[in-house]
Write a structure and sequence with these properties.
Layout (H helix, E strand, L loop, with lengths): L15 H22 L2 E2 L1 H4 L1 E8 L5 H10 L5 E5 L4 E7 L5 H13 L5 E9 L1 H30 L2 H25 L2 E2 L1 H31 L5 H33 L5 H35 L8 E3 L6 E3 L4 H12 L1
Parallel strand pairs: 1-6
Antiparallel strand pairs: 2-4, 2-5, 3-4, 7-8
């Protein structure tokens, strides 16, 4: 495997309480921002009309906005193709789409520039509510299935829950940032949220796989050492993959045009959060649960591994509870 960094020995778990506190502060600030500012939903969720027009000559976005404001039209404007095509979004269902189109044309006529209306789309409030419900269900279903997948793959519900809590952390931070920046949330952003969720869980699975491998190959290692060593061994891979994604989405943000700006911004935030949540949320939660469970005298939360000699499922010998039971057996 290609390595950008020399072999590291960072004690990530040492700072787990600092990570948890930092995330707690972010969540408190984020919920406060949601309470004060809320979300800037797109017309897919609120209902409204979209009018797309193309001018013969280049027209500044500010002039188009000024013309619409002169007719008391509160609209969001996006420019395309170097300033001669515009997407005009008017939220709410106060007017019929044809009436809205006429009002927009009356405003644009004051610019004394030739243009044509490319398309007019209308989203009713009922459709907007249905799309909102579908978007929420899509996120919840994706997170639930990820818990099932990881629990099945590692045969441990705690690992699956920890991984999905890390994903939920990433999704919420993205939403907090969009609320703070008052960026529009539409179906494209929902797609970005699901994309980041898939990317983040993949990063978690890579670390979990390494943890399971170390628990099998180094049965005397404690869970604390297993997690720290696994994070250090996969750190170079994480930096390489994250840097590759970041380069692509940053270029997309600056050169992809106004239409892709919100999507690429969501991907930038989510990519960075995905790395943070793997190191600071998901894997420390696995250790925290393991540590608390052992102190309470519970059973191991290590993944179940099939016994190659007898074919009987047995707990991985990397767990401390297994070692304690084995010592008592030999003592007898």
């Amino acid at each position: 495997m290609m390595r950008l960094l020399p072999k590291t020995n960072i004690d990530f778990l040492k700072y787990r309480k600092v990570f948890f506190t930092l995330s707690g502060i972010i969540f408190l600030a984020g919920f406060a921002c949601l309470f004060l500012r809320g979300f800037n939903y797109g017309i897919e969720f609120t209902g409204g009309t979209l009018v797309q027009v193309t001018f013969v000559n280049d027209v500044p976005t500010g002039e188009v906005r000024k013309a619409l404001s002169s007719k008391n039209i509160d609209a969001e404007i996006q420019s395309f193709t170097d300033g001669n095509a515009f997407s005009i979004k008017i939220k709410g269902a106060e007017y019929e789409p044809n009436e809205t189109k006429v009002k927009v044309q009356e405003a644009l006529n004051t610019l004394n520039e030739q243009y044509k209306v490319d398309r007019t789309e209308y989203v009713g409030p009922a459709v907007g509510k249905d799309m909102t419900k579908r978007a929420v269900w899509a996120l919840l279903l994706a997170l639930s299935l990820m818990i099932v997948y990881i629990a099945f793959r590692f045969q441990n519900i705690v690992w699956g829950t920890s991984g999905v809590l890390g994903i939920l952390h990433d999704v919420m931070v993205m939403l907090f940032m969009f609320s703070f920046l008052h960026r529009e949330i539409d179906l494209v952003i929902v797609a970005a949220l699901l994309t980041v969720a898939g990317y983040s869980i993949n990063d978690n699975i890579v670390v979990f796989d390494r943890m399971r491998e170390r628990m099998h190959n180094h049965p005397k290692e404690k869970m604390y050492e297993v997690i720290n060593n696994s994070l250090n061994e996969t750190l170079s891979r994480t930096i390489i993959t994250t840097s590759t994604v970041l380069v692509a989405v940053v270029i997309l943000y600056f050169m992809g045009g106004e239409v892709l700006k919100n999507f690429s911004l969501a991907m930038i935030i989510g990519t960075v959060c995905g790395v943070y949540s793997t190191i600071a949320i998901a894997t420390p939660l696995v250790y925290q649960w393991a540590h608390s469970n052992e102190e309470a005298g519970g059973s191991s939360i290590a993944p179940v591994k099939a016994n190659s000699t007898s074919g009987v499922a047995a707990q991985d010998t990397g767990s401390s509870s297994y070692r304690e039971k084995k010592k008592k057996k030999h003592a007898k």
